[in-house]
Write a structure and sequence with these properties.
- The protein is of the alpha/beta class.
- The chain folds into 3 domains: 283 residues, Metallo-beta-lactamase, Chain A; 122 residues, Response regulator (Rossmann fold); 149 residues, GAF domain (Beta-Lactamase, 2-Layer Sandwich), CATH 3.30.450.40.
- Helix content is 28%, strand content 23%.
- The strands form 4 sheets. Strands 6-5-4-3-2-1-14 form a 7-stranded mixed β-sheet. The protein has a 7-stranded mixed β-sheet with strand order 7-8-9-10-11-12-13.
- A hairpin with a 2-residue loop joins strand 7 and strand 8.
- The longest helix has 18 residues.
- It is globular.
Length: 596
């Protein structure tokens, strides 16, 4: 990879005699893979020089990809002056965080309104495609890119780019997570950031403030140089480029910061190489392998369509003080999501079961025991919702739980809560669409319970059906799946050892609501399932066909379903054949083992 810095200043461009060595233009980086794939990261004022260089270059037309970390002004102000976007026959893909209510195209169009700029977005001559991203992975040519939310007042993505046997991480803008007073240890949330940087060949990291300045800048969304060194040392990073230099800092002041942190690294015995990012500086990472890093199966896609997943989004807020309720309510209202406040523990426990919220927030200050009880209950119900604990410090009673807990530390503002809320929303619930509950859910569950079939031993009368169905359709997995209150349970499972799964991830939960045969030819291409854990995880579901199993009174108990790890298509003849197998399974549901 070839990396070149075109803009390294933060917040405000400051070209002048005091910023000659490190540069005065705001953030912009050019990256090219060994095969020539062009990626531009952020488009501050440094993009003007890069654009002119690309327009004058030997390769025309220009095909490129622009990754925007977030839409604060200093990271997009170069777009209206980026020449390659105006040239016909050029092609550009522009990527940025999905900001829920507004697409990246909407944001850029607002920037170029006639009030602010004489040329509109529609006047750009190049062919431009816009992509709104969440956390996950995607590919650009031979480059695999992983995204992760950073800690900043605006929804911000960090980018990890892997190709040619190397990895480069761009982490700008990012602030340390709150710590206990006088603590020098990295907290749990900072360690997640460390994992994102793990073993990178080069990390380009926000380092706007000094340790002395930071106490008066808490909440502004930027790191210190010392923090950048700490997380990179913990991650085993090879090279660290400190960037986003404060606009008040001249070249000598940047030199002083670099010297200080280099001495810190040297005295610690760490092999990390630290330097200050400077305009015009080039770094070359020679290929160790020309094979692109494959997308990890456990990583969801970063380009998920989230609109339908947000339609029924809800937040359960456990018992807390009125001030916290007001802040969370204002943040939820601003993002158009439903808040479910609870005045006491019993109400919160009941709503966990009946409402099945998309996000659970509990306050340990109100009652540590009650907060832990709510956390455990949410886990017991196998909700796919993030669990967030509201705490007054980096350490929490929830640290002793054996499952992952997010946290938000007091004091926090409505704006900060909105940003964190969007990160939690986009990190989890928006990855796939949960099925709605059937209108007759209570009577349906009562009918299922009356069958007395759940958690019974396997029986040949059902296994014979799934075995023959798997052979008939040449699929690796065939199931008789029954949809319980919060799980799908398999009376018969051919081709898998899994006996049950959370209802939230069940394809069959959609089939019983649609009341018809559900065919998913390719889950990767279906916005309802593309980032479902059954698709992105070890199960690797690509094809699904499920036929509802009805009782004589019309209640649907589950499905006879077929699963494959490759895309497939079913014609009418195959669908009718699946219905025949389902009829056989339906007959067995209402028969006792003796009569069968």
């Amino acid at each position: 990879m070839l990396i070149r810095f075109w803009g390294t200043r933060g917040s405000l461009p400051k070209p002048g005699p005091d910023t000659i060595r490190y540069g005065g233009n705001t953030s912009c980086i050019e990256l090219r893979s060994d095969s020539g794939t062009l990626v531009v990261i952020d488009c501050g004022t440094g993009a003007h020089g890069l654009g002119r260089a690309l327009a004058a270059g030997p390769v025309q037309p220009v095909r490129g990809h622009l990754l925007i970390s977030h839409t604060h002004w200093d990271h997009i102000q170069g777009i209206p002056f980026f020449t390659p976007l105006f040239v016909p026959d050029n092609e550009w893909d522009i990527y940025a965080p999905n900001n829920l209510g507004q697409t990246i195209r909407d944001t850029l169009a607002g920037q170029m309104q006639s009030t602010y700029f004489p040329v509109t977005l529609e006047a750009l001559g190049a062919k431009i495609r816009y992509h709104d991203l969440v956390e996950g992975t995607f590919e650009i040519g031979d480059i695999t890119i992983t995204t992760q939310y950073l800690h900043h007042p605006a929804l911000t993505l960090g980018y990890r780019l892997e190709t040619d046997g190397h990895s480069v991480v761009y982490s700008c803008d990012h602030e340390p997570f709150p710590r206990e007073p006088d603590s020098v240890e990295l907290g749990a949330q900072d360690l997640l950031h460390v994992d994102f940087l793990r073993d990178a060949d080069l990390v380009i990291h926000d380092a706007q403030y000094t340790e002395e300045e930071y106490p008066t800048k808490v909440g502004w969304g930027h790191s210190t140089a010392d923090y950048a060194v700490d997380v990179c040392c913990a991650a085993g990073v090879k090279q660290l480029a400190l960037t986003h230099h404060d606009p008040t800092r001249d070249d000598d002041a940047v030199d002083k910061i670099i010297s200080t942190v280099r001495n810190k690294v040297s005295s610690s015995g760490q092999p990390l190489q630290v330097f200050g990012a400077a305009e015009g500086q080039k770094i070359e990472l020679r290929p160790t392998s020309h094979k692109a890093t494959p997308r990890r199966a456990s990583e969801p896609s970063a380009s998920t369509n989230i609109k339908s997943a947000l339609a029924d989004y809800s937040i359960l807020l456990g018992p807390t003080d009125s001030a916290t309720v007001d802040i969370v309510a204002a943040a939820a209202a601003a993002e158009n999501v439903r808040l479910l406040p609870s005045a006491d523990l019993d109400t919160a426990l009941k709503m966990l079961e009946t409402e099945r919220p998309s996000l659970v927030m509990v306050d340990e200050q109100n009652s540590v025991d009650h907060a832990l009880m709510l956390c455990r209950k949410a886990r017991e119900l196998q909700l796919q919702a993030p669990i967030v604990i509201i705490t007054d410090g980096q350490h929490s009673a929830a640290d002793k739980l054996d499952f992952k807990i997010e946290r938000i530390v007091r004091p926090f503002s409505v704006g900060y809560a909105r940003t964190r809320l969007k990160a939690w929303v986009l990190r989890t619930t928006c990855r796939w669409v949960r099925a709605k509950m059937p209108e007759n859910e209570d009577t349906r569950l009562a009918a299922l319970k009356e069958l007395a079939i759940l958690d019974t031993e396997p029986e040949e009368r059902f296994d014979r059906i799934t075995r023959e169905a798997a052979d008939e359709f040449d699929v690796p997995v065939a199931l008789v799946s029954l949809i319980d209150h919060d799980r799908q349970w398999f009376k018969s499972c051919i081709g898998t050892d899994i006996k049950e799964a959370p209802r939230d991830v069940a394809f069959c939960a959609h089939a019983i609501v649609e009341n018809n045969v559900l065919i998913v030819p390719d889950a990767f291409l279906d916005s309802r399932f593309a980032d479902n854990p059954m698709v992105t995880g070890e199960s690797r579901v690509r094809f699904y066909a499920g036929c509802p199993l009805r009782l004589p009174d019309g209640h649907i108990m589950g499905t006879l379903c077929l699963i494959d790890i490759r895309p497939r298509h079913f014609d009418d003849k195959q669908i009718n054949k699946l219905k025949e197998f389902a009829k056989r399974a339906e007959a067995q549901l209402v028969q006792t083992p003796e009569s069968a």
